[in-house]
Each structure stands twice: as C-alpha cells, then as structure tokens.
Task: inverse folding
C-alpha cells in the first residue's frame, strides 16, 4: 500500500500556489479610492471617482507557508527523495496551508451627495476567487510511506483533509459618512452571486493497521467525511462532453452565474476612522460578514461508518482451487456495506472568509493648510481648514477567519506624501508566511488621472522560486478634486 514517488511529487506540485487576502498596503491609503473596499469608513477627500473598467482594481498574490519550489528543485546535489522527507514530511504540519486569492474589479464608482456633502456613496462589481488547502500531513505520510513497517499501529488522522474554495461575483453599494471633524463611519452592502463553491472542512476519522488474527494484518477505518459542492457539477459536465460548443457553453454558463444566475447570498462590511487628536487616528473594519445559500447544482459526497478487514482469507490447501475474482468483489462489497459511500443534493450554507483590520496612525511634518472645497461637508459648513501632513507612521493588525481558526498578521508602515501628485507607503509585515515581508506602494495623480501600484515581499523577488510570498495590486481611476 505504497504510492510511487512520482505520484506524490505530482500532488505537491498541484497545490504549490498560495495566496493571502491581506491588503496591508491598500488599507488606510486614503489617496486611493479602492481603500474604501477594505474600510468603508476610511477618510474620503475626493468629490467623485470612477475606475477604468476592468483595470481599476486588480489584485494577485502568491506564496507558500511551507515548502517552496526552490526547496524541492534547486540543483544542490541532494536527492529528491531526501528533500521530500526532510523539507516536506518532517517540516510541514497540518497548520500549513496552500491557497489562492485574486480580485478583479468590473467597475467602481463613487460620488459625494449633492444635498448631503457629508456622505460619499460608492458602488460597483468585482469578481473574487478564493481557495485554501491545508497540508494533509497524515495522509501525505501514508501515501509516501505506506501503512507497513514502522507505521504498524499508527493511527492516521483523516481530519487532516481540509479544503475550501469558491469563485463569486460581488455587487456592492456603500455609504461613507463624516459624522464630525473627528469621526467617519461607513457600511457596504453586498449581494453575492456564486459561480462555484466546494468545501470539505469538518472531517474526522482514522485509519490504522494492526496485527491480525486470521491474516497477518488488520486494517481499520473509521470515517465521518463529506465533500460539498455547488456549481462545479455543471462545469464538469460541459468539459466532459468536449464538443465543438464547449467553450461557448462554458462562457454562457459563467455569464449567467456572474449576473445573479448562480446561488445567491448577502454580506456586509463595516468600518470607521476616528481622530484621537489632530495627528493621531485609529481605524477599524470588518469585511465579508456574510453567507451564500448553495441550493442550485449541488452535489455532495459522504463517507461515514466503520470497517475492519484482514484482506482475503484463504485456507490452504482446501481453497487453492477456489481463488477467483469473486473473493475480491466480496471483500469490496463488505467494506462498502460497513463504510457506505453516499451522494446527495442537499443545500447548505457557505460562509465568506471573514476579515478584520485595525490600525493606529500618527501624522507629522505639517505642510500647507488646504481650504475645504472638496465636498467634505462638515468642514465646509464650519469654515475650518484641513491640515495637511507630509508623513505618517503606524501599525496595522489583520485577521482572517479560516477553517482552522483566525490567521493574524501584524504590519508597521511609513507613508510619505508630496502634495496630491505623489504618495508612497512602505510596510513591514509579519505573518505565518514570512518574517521578512517588506512592501512598497506608490500612488500617482496626474490631473484627474490616478494610477497606483502596490507590491509585497520585495526581497523575495531576488529569487521567486525560493520566495514564500509575492503580491501585486494595481489600478487606474479618474478622480475629481475640488473643481476639477
């Protein structure tokens, strides 16, 4: 019961990409309109903005919390089997994960209320893909080593299998309100249209091999496992047909599900910014507090029960002429009866990955005062001026809810502003993926045209194959400031 090394290597390569959803460079970078998407209560200064369709907000991130490509394939003279043993099986735990997350904005528009200049409204559409696979440590050891030798009597945990993924289109509408000169709050309603979703996150059970009575070994499996899928079966069926219309059928199916033809759900974002004093600000936000009810194109697979087997028992010499394929089929039937495999189409709730941000920022290096003609209603009414600071320093905390608990990240940052034309933000982030994540974000404003680019873990670009993390975000907007 031993898989070949090539099969095990294929499994490793198939789950190499990893992405994290932390947008620490974008968070509280209020010169960029898309900062509203990570804190609907962020400070807003523009009169209106519109993103350039499909290129206003693109986000791609990749990395790994465990083994890297370079760890396995570097030409370092070490045998590949030894690398797998030392750098994967012995080094990675069930807490290590592989995931992928990306976002593409269809469009993003915002404007200040004509009769309520304290309010800034924003709306748009974006697509998001999110997949996470936890490293199945015990199952990987079982596949690599088999259940014999030193693994006799070892209980392999089937609960190590944990995977979740989805592709979803999001329609959103948000309100950002300046309550006073010190407090800004915001909320964003979301309507989710799911393209596909799958999850297998609450598995339990064990597989153990012990000494047998009628045969040499006895294998015992106890399982309570389920894979839930919604939307995937329709896609698989089209691909299996493999006809001349396959591409057109897939496009039609995706278009239907993008525009509210898939499984639907609701979500909410909340956020605030509060000035403790003219130079110190605290912020916080909660994102994707929501769910999707998966009821269409649902197909679930279950494996529940307990089974024991000692294999095929043959009594010699009486049964020497009775050995045939029926004995193997009887064995399979007995196992299936004790450990039934089932399928159903029951609907289920899938919850979005809940995210939370918090920060404290200190501004210094005072520049000019700016007369408030930007539609910032409270300041206009009071006739006060907004102080402009060239520099900011602070810290940020990020949490994301994953199937095995919250994953935190801690960020320190420095931001430099040169008027409205240019601003730069540098970050240093510590999380489960890297202790040396240095990021840089640049924002350019040329008249009404806005361009931003944000890159993470810049030190890792020296050797991409050996990097644990990489991230890139960029986009174009048209922004109206004052009377522009």
Result:
């Amino acid at each position: 019961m031993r898989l070949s090394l090539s099969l095990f290597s294929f499994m490793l390569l198939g789950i190499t990409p990893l992405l994290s959803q932390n947008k620490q460079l974008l968070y509280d970078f209020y010169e960029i309109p898309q900062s509203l998407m990570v804190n609907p209560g962020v400070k807003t200064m523009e009169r209106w903005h519109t993103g350039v369709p499909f290129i206003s907000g693109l986000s791609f991130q990749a990395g790994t919390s465990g083994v890297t490509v370079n760890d396995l394939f570097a030409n370092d003279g070490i045998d590949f089997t030894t690398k797998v043993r030392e750098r994967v099986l012995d080094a990675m735990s069930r807490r290590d994960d592989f995931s992928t997350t990306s976002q593409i904005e269809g469009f993003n528009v915002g404007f200040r209320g004509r009769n309520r200049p304290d309010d800034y409204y924003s709306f748009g559409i974006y697509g998001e893909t999110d997949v996470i696979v936890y490293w199945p440590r015990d199952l990987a050891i079982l596949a690599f080593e088999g259940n014999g030798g030193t693994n006799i009597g070892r209980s392999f945990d089937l609960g190590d299998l944990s995977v979740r993924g989805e592709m979803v289109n999001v329609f959103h509408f948000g309100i950002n309100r300046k309550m006073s000169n010190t407090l800004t709050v915001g909320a964003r309603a979301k309507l989710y249209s799911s393209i596909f979703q799958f999850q297998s996150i609450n598995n339990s059970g064990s597989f153990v091999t012990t000494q047998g009575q009628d045969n040499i070994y006895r294998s015992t499996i106890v399982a309570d496992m389920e894979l839930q899928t919604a939307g995937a079966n329709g896609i698989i069926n089209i691909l299996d047909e493999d006809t001349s219309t396959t591409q057109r059928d897939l496009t039609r199916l995706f278009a239907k599900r993008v525009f509210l033809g898939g499984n639907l759900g609701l979500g909410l974002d909340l956020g605030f910014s509060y000035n403790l004093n003219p130079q110190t600000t605290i912020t916080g936000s909660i994102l994707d507090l929501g769910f999707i009810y998966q009821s269409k194109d649902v197909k679930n697979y279950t494996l529940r029960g307990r089974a024991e087997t000692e294999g095929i028992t043959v009594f010699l010499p009486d049964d020497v002429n009775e050995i045939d394929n029926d004995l193997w089929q009887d064995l399979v039937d007995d196992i299936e009866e004790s450990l039934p495999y089932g399928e159903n189409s029951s609907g289920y709730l899938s919850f979005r990955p809940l995210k939370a941000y918090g920060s404290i920022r200190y501004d210094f290096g005072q520049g000019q005062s700016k007369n408030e003609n930007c539609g910032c209603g409270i300041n206009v009414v009071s006739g006060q001026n907004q102080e402009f600071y060239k520099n900011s320093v602070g810290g940020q905390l990020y949490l994301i809810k994953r199937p095995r608990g919250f994953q935190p990240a801690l960020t320190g940052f420095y931001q430099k502003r040169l008027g409205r034309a240019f601003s730069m933000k540098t970050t240093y982030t510590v999380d489960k993926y890297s202790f040396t994540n240095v990021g840089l974000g640049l924002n350019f404003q040329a008249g009404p045209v806005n361009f931003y680019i944000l890159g993470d873990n810049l030190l890792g670009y020296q050797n991409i194959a050996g990097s644990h993390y990489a991230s890139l975000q960029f986009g174009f907007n048209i922004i109206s400031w004052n009377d522009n």
Notes: Residues 246-261 form the longest helix (16 residues). Residues 295 and 347 are 4 Å apart (CA to CA).
